[in-house]
Amino acid sequence: MQEPIDAATLARQIAAGAPLLFLRTANEARSEELIARCMRQGLPSLPEPVTWTCTRGFPEVAETKEPLAALNWALAQTGRRVFVFKDMHWFWHDQPYLQRLLLEAADQPGDAPKTFIFLGHEANLPGALEKSFLLFEHALPDRAELRSFFQERRDKDPLLQKIVQSSADIDRLVLATQGLDLSDLRHAMRLTRLQREAQLDQLVASLFRTKKQILQKTGIMEFVDNDPAAAQVGGMENLKEWLAKRERAFGADDLAAGRNLPKGVLIMGISGCGKSLFVKAIAARWRLPLVRLDMATVYEGTYGSPESSLRQALRTAESLAPCVLWIDEIEAGISNQGFKAEGGAASRVLGYFLTWMQEKRAAVFVAATANAIEMLPAEILRKGRFDEIFYVALPEVPEREAIFRIHLQRRGFAADDFSLSMLAHSAKGFSGAEIEQAVASAVFECLAQNRTLTQQDVMEAIGRTVPLSITMAEQIKKIEAWAFKRAVSASRTGNR
After folding, report:
1. Which residues of 111-121 are buried (b: 16+ CB within 10 A; e: fewer)?
2. Which fold has domain 3-137?
3. Among 89, 185, 250, 484, which residue carries the largest CB count within 10 Å?
4. 279: how many CB neighbours lie within 10 A of its CB?
5. Cβ(291)–Cβ(325) under 8 Å?
6. Nearest CA among 325, 181, 182 for reference residue 258
7. 460 or 374, greater pLDDT
8. Helix (H) / strand (E) containing 218
9. Can 3-137 and 397-465 be said to share one CATH topology?
10. Are 173 and 203 in contact (CB under 8 A)?
11. Does the pLDDT at position 422 exceed 90?
């Protein structure tokens, strides 16, 4: 992974005479601004940097479009100079003369070495040049840069003058913009200007749409549209209390801003009991963007090797921080069986993920879900990787009552018109998903007969349902046996 770079770091490297630097960047113009700022502030005595492209060569220098001619011209210049090459990484593979010239540039004699800075999306260096280059990454704008962007332009941009009224509005825009490049931000602002009555909410919505489109292009991750209503979850009182304690300790606003954000939780349990729903509830409750990573996609190979796919996904999550990273069915990509089947790739994926979990500094709350936690390696379950491991069992009677209430109210029915206690006792052994489906099935039957929903309709739908607790009783007992004394129950024990 490349080291992040800023103007001060770049100035130190140039001052030390580093000959070959590669800046991994998704925005050449922004990187050029960084280099120019570095020269103005840190190295004002040096001439301004000169930029080369394969279509124009060096400005006002004839016959420098060809890479060899451009490098020869740059090396022939006298004194300390800085040269920026935008397109060289497309030419240096299978070009021995070009590689030799770069090796000579890396070993410049004299007291006035030149610095060559290469810009590109990926540092795909030829093997012969790897030891000669210093690799850096010009990451996406951080919160400080975004805040500076809005503060500097608030008095100049008519749109920002209209919609930004306070420091809290800037905070909201910074959170919404986190993970985007400045070019994406400017595009979202142009779209908002086209609307007749531009408002802050519209700009924020446009920024979130842009994030979603960018993640769709990567293919590895998905931006999940979340709703504050997602925080409505029946049961799981211990898990809710775990969240509430952190809100009381650090403050909900600080958590939403990414300050003191916990590392994450691993939620395991029976399918259909609300693991995924609770991940959405965490993001909604703490007002954080939610991105989903499917570990099976990491191993597909469509987006490169598993290691590079995971690196790209985690780098994207860090750029979106503060956020909730939802790793769905983590055992599909990190498992003991995977090590035997995939060999070295699975081991490297596990090693990289564990190191990232242990060392990450970005405010990324990792919420992983698993159906078969016994498949996970012991390394990922030890304390320090996740803050807590929760087990989500089949809902108990009070939780089933709460779930029935939620789903009846969502469909426009008054929950007090039904005997929730009777429904909950009748649905013994039902998961939350099975309760939802029973209510949906009863509503459908009533709509088909053009009449209103009654208690009997829901009871009949319950009677027609064979729950997983019966069809997969042995597997559920195995999961419960593993979770006993190994995980914290998400629910408070009581009446089943």
Report:
1. eebbbbbbbbe
2. Rossmann fold (3.40.50)
3. 185
4. 26
5. yes
6. 325
7. 460
8. helix 200-218
9. no
10. yes
11. yes
The span from the CA of 362 to the CA of 319, in Å, is: 8
- DSSP conformational letter for 222: E
Give the position of tokens 């709350």: 365
- Which residues, in sequence order, are bridge partners of residue 84? 51, 117
* R_g over Cα of the chain: 28
Residue type, 409: Q
CATH class for the domain made up of 228-392: alpha beta
Residues in a beta bridge with 388: 265
**CA 156 – CA 360 distance, rounded (Å):** 37
3-state secondary structure of 252: helix
Q: CB of 278 within 8 A of CB of 310?
A: no
* pTM exceeds 0.90, yes or no: no
Helix axes 96-106, 67-76, angle to 10 degrees: 20
- The token pair that represents 495 in the structure block: 């009446």
Structure tokens at 285: 């409750």
Contacts 24+ apart (CB under 8 A), 424-429: 424/397, 424/398, 424/400, 425/397, 426/459, 426/462, 426/463, 427/400, 427/462, 428/496, 429/394, 429/467, 429/469, 429/470
Element (H, E) at 190: helix 182-193
DSSP of 66-135: SHHHHHHHHHHS-SS-EEEESSGGGT-TT-HHHHHHHHHHHT--SSS--EEEEEESS----GGGGGG-EE
Pick 397-465's CATH classification: 1.10.8.60, 1.10.10.60, 3.40.50.2300, 1.10.357.140: 1.10.8.60
pLDDT in tens, 234-251: 667 888 888 889 889 888
Please state, in angstroms and rounded to a whole number, the distance separating the CA atoms of residues 237 and 235: 5
Spatial distance between the Cα atoms of 136 and 154, rounded to a whole number of angstroms = 32
Span 121-165, pLDDT tens digits? 888 899 899 999 999 988 788 778 888 889 888 888 888 888 888
Task: Give me the count of residues in the chain.
Answer: 496
Whether 404 and 377 have beta carbons less than 8 Å apart is answered as no
- Do residues 236 and 281 lie in contact, with contact meaning Cβ atoms separated by under 8 Å? no
**pLDDT band of 340, cuts 50, 70, 90:** very low
